[in-house]
Amino acid sequence: MLTGWKERLAKGCIAQRYVVAIMGFLAIANAYTMRICLSTAITEMVVHRDRNESHLDPDACPSSSVSNNKHEPHGRFDWDEETQGLILSSFFWGYVITHLPGGMLAEKFGGKYALGLGILSTAIFTLLTPLAAIHGGAGWLIAVRFIEGLGEGSTFPAINAILAHWVPPQQRGILGSFVFAGSQIGTVVGTALSGVLIQYSSIGWPSVFYLFGALGVLWFIAWTLLCYNDPQSHPFISDEEKTFLEKSIGGIDNKKDVPPVPWREMAKSVPLWGLIFAQIGHDWGFFTLVTDLPKYFKDVMRFNIFEVSKLI
């Protein structure tokens, strides 16, 4: 039972499961802003040779058909399309590797630090992205983005582990939808803000990585102070909410109550394979669009970066 300042703090706060939901929403939103910001920034990082060369792409719109930003930087990196493709895809090479390990670690030891440290590592390497590109070139940038992907791979497995401890069955639809809406909000806000920052910031495209990386670090600090693996380990959750969650969900000891992963049964489950293929189809389309659409609008449709951020 809570006493003293902990009791007063618990009575003055909103329910801790809502705090976890809000922080989970911000975690996914932060993850997506850091994931997609390079897709917009790279359009201003690279040299666009077709502006000055006599050869014109027959499939591209003429430059005069849309407005151009006279303050637009001309890019400093002479990377061909193949190199740009490797840079943009390198995040996902790391991302697919840590899904299963991240989920297993979150189930065994709790999702707080599986999620928090993953976002923190991504934030730190997001802050280092301009340095890697300017001083290390494409190779170092690919390595940094690969490591960012490794960090973010644990995001969704860890979030699910956290929600399993904090969200009662009668609120899973509402709170789950709210938390996972962070992916769409993060994509929209990240793309829009990237264009604004590049357009109006005095330092140009590096500002995108500095802002979103700094927000990721700030989120980690707040997450560490406010959120815990489960209600049993939370120091200032109210007795009423703790009792309610224990009755609704039941206490789960990660070190004792988690059974072995039923790999054989999973491999034979037709509904599970249906869900897997549906998710693959969704991710293929979604990530292809958010990764390549800014380059398409810039290189083919001839929109400037501020217009690209508004369109996407």
From TrEMBL:
Membrane topology: Multi-pass membrane protein
Cellular component annotations (GO), alphabetically ordered: membrane
Top-rank taxon, per record: Eukaryota
Primary location class: membrane
GO molecular function: transmembrane transporter activity
GO biological process, one term: monoatomic anion transport
Cited Gene3D superfamilies: MFS general substrate transporter like domains
Keyword field contains Transmembrane: yes
Keyword vocabulary terms for this entry: Membrane, Transmembrane, Transmembrane helix
Pfam families in UniProt: MFS_1 (PF07690)
Domain Major facilitator superfamily (MFS) profile: 16-312
Compartment(s) where it occurs, according to its Swiss-Prot or TrEMBL record: Membrane
Transmembrane parts of this sequence: 20-42, 86-106, 113-134, 175-201, 207-228
Family matches, as PANTHER family: AT30085P-RELATED, SOLUTE CARRIER FAMILY 17
The protein's name: Major facilitator superfamily (MFS) profile domain-containing protein
Organism of derivation: Cryptotermes secundus
